[in-house]
Amino acid sequence: MNSYNCPFTDTLTHGGCYGPNAEYIKFISSDDHEIYIKEDYTVVSKTIKEIFQARGVLKEEELNRVVFDQIPSHLLVKVCQYFTFKAHFTSKCFKTVPRFKIDENIIGDLLGVANMLLC
Fold first, then answer.
1. What sign has the CA pseudo-torsion 27, 74, 112, 45?
2. Where is the SKP1 component POZ domain (predicted)?
């Protein structure tokens, strides 16, 4: 493994979050928590797609990251859980898809984040 891989991928045999072939993205919340997610899972968000398009291709040593200075970690984690849930249940043929569970206490805040991320 080269020195450009992020700590999260040390246990993986492929991937990484650096350079043009990065498979993972490092999200940083407003309270400085780091969350790693597969880039493919984030296609649900038009805002994240636009960030990548505006940024262009990463250089080999550049970290694939997005800072969300208005989204606290408890909401960003839930968004990442939704991205993963959506990717899982749309990648396979399921007869029924379970409901994605959301704590009632964060519904309003999460709706605001979903609007911000256009997902």
1. positive
2. 24-85
